[in-house]
Every structure is written in structure tokens, then in C-alpha cells.
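Backbone-to-sequence.
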């Protein structure tokens, strides 16, 4: 166990650690993030490897062109997340919370963890991972991410 580091400012939030911190442990999440004053919270709808804009009720054929493998779906999902963050005036380091829903954690979590680590480039948000029976959009989807970001406050730049 190592000394607890002081809060570290990343974008519009402070990364918080507590007793039990061990710098030698590799983890895809941090225990807590405190959003700074004047930041605006941005909530991103479920991010998947499927087309972002699609009809409701769902039309199965719309999803035929999406990748069926975990690597392809996670690449699409994080590309979609980039688009949403940029549209909201956010950067990748502004993501403060990531809830990950998997249909098969054992099969896909390591693929997602690797891509997620590379995509964030060293930034680590809070995170929760849950296994579900299936996702609502299309039964061929392997995972979905709920994302919260802390955008710069009004008058600040991204």
C-alpha cells in the first residue's frame, strides 16, 4: 500500500483516492471523481456499436452492417462517444462516469478494457460493469455504455 495521493485535477473534475490505494494495481476505474464548481454535467445516451440514429421500433436490417465481434463493436462505440462528447463541448478527459452493460462479461471485458485504456490515453473515470441478459437495441449487440461527462462551465472553453 502506498500513500494516498492528493486529489488530481483532470479536465473539470478531481480524481479522488482513499485508504487502500496501491499504485501498483492496474485498474480501469478510480474510486471517486468530484466535479469542480461551474462545470456542466453532460449525460450521453447508451453508446453501442450500432448506428446512433435508427428507427423506433427497431428495424433489424439497419443493424446488419454493424460489426458482430467485440473489437469492432467497441471501436464503433467509442467513435460514437467521441462524436457525442465533441457535440457537447467535451474532451475524452471530461468523462467522469462510465456504466458498462455486457451480455457476456467473460468473453468481452478484456477486449473492451484494452480499447478503453487506449482511447482514454491514461485518463480513468469512475466505472461500474454489469452483465445483462440482452440489450434493447439489437440482440447482436455485445455491450452498451452509459456515460456522464463534466463539460467546462459556461464561458469556459473545452
Amino acid at each position: 500500500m502506498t500513500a494516498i495521493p492528493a486529489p488530481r485535477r483532470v479536465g473539470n473534475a478531481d480524481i479522488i483516492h482513499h485508504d487502500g490505494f496501491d499504485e501498483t494495481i492496474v485498474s480501469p476505474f478510480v474510486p471517486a471523481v468530484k466535479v469542480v464548481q461551474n462545470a456542466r454535467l453532460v449525460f450521453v445516451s447508451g453508446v453501442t456499436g450500432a448506428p446512433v440514429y435508427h428507427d423506433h421500433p427497431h428495424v433489424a436490417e439497419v443493424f446488419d452492417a454493424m460489426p458482430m465481434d467485440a473489437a469492432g463493436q467497441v471501436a464503433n462505440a467509442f467513435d460514437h462517444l467521441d462524436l457525442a462528447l465533441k457535440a457537447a463541448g467535451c474532451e475524452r478527459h471530461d468523462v467522469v462516469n462510465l456504466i458498462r452493460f455486457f451480455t457476456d462479461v467473460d468473453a468481452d471485458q478484456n477486449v473492451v478494457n484494452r480499447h478503453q485504456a487506449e482511447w482514454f490515453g491514461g485518463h480513468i473515470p469512475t466505472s461500474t460493469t454489469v452483465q445483462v441478459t440482452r440489450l434493447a437495441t439489437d440482440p447482436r449487440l455485445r455491450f452498451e455504455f452509459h456515460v456522464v461527462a463534466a463539460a467546462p462551465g459556461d464561458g469556459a472553453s473545452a
